[in-house]
Amino acid sequence: MVNAVAHILIPIILADIYRDYISRRKFPLAYVMLAGIGGILPDIDVAVYWLLNALSGTALGEVHRTITHTLLMPAIILVAAGITYKLSKKAAYAMLAITFGYLMHLLLDYAIIGTIMPFYPFSAARYGLSVIPATELGSTIVTGIDAILLTAWLVYDFSKHNIKEFI
C-alpha cells in the first residue's frame, strides 16, 4: 500500500508540472492543491473502518479498497463536473482536479502494492501489478519513496514558486 504522502504528493507534483510547463493558461495553485486532496480521498474508507471496527470489530479488508477504490467514484465526480460546468466553471475545474488526484490514487494502488477492485460493487475481481512486494523490504521502499518525493517537491517549490518569501 502506498503511503498517504505519495498519494497526496504525486498528483500535486504532476498537476504542478502540468501547470508550469504544459498548460497554455496558468490555472490557480488551488487546483493543484485539490488534486492532492483528491489523491488521498479514496482512503476516507480507513476512517469508516476505524468507526466500524470500534462498533462491531469489522476487519480492514472488509472496508478498505472497496467502494472508494472503484472507477465508479471518479466517474460520479466527472459527471458532476460536466453538469456543473455551465453553472460554475471554477467548480467544474475543481472537480476535475479532484478527479485527477482520485484516479492517480487508484493507479498507484493498482501498480505499486496490492490490488484494487475497479468495478466493485458490480464485480469483486481484483487487479494489481504489485511492482513492489508486500514485504518488510517493500514497506521500507515505499517509505523511502515518500521521503524522496517530499524532499524533491520541497526543493522544486522552493525554486519555482518562490516559497522562500514565506520562510
Q: Could you describe the 3D structure shown?
A:
With 167 residues, this protein is an all-alpha fold. The chain has one domain (4-166). Helices cover 65% and strands 0% of the residues. The chain has 7 helices and no strands. The longest helix has 25 residues, at 136-160. The protein is globular and about 50 Å long. It starts with a helix and ends in a 7-residue tail after the last helix. The model has no long low-confidence stretch (mean pLDDT 92).
Low-confidence stretches: none
> What is the number of helical segments per DSSP (H or I, 4+ residues)?
7
SSE topology string = HHHHHHH
- How many domains? The number is 1
Supply the helix-strand structural class: mainly alpha
- Biggest sheet descriptor: none
Tell me the distance between the termini. 33 Å
Helix content: 55-70%
Radius of gyration: 17 Å
Quantity of strands, as a count = 0
Mean pLDDT: 92
Shape: globular
Beta-strand percentage range: under 5%
Short summary:
With 167 residues, the chain is mainly alpha-helical. The protein has helices at 4-22, 29-40, 44-56, 60-63, 72-84, 89-111, 136-160. It has seven helices and no strands.
Task: Fill in the keyword field for this structure.
167 residues; single chain; 7 helices; mainly alpha
Summarize the SSE layout with pairings:
Elements: H1 4-22, H2 29-40, H3 44-56, H4 60-63, H5 72-84, H6 89-111, H7 136-160
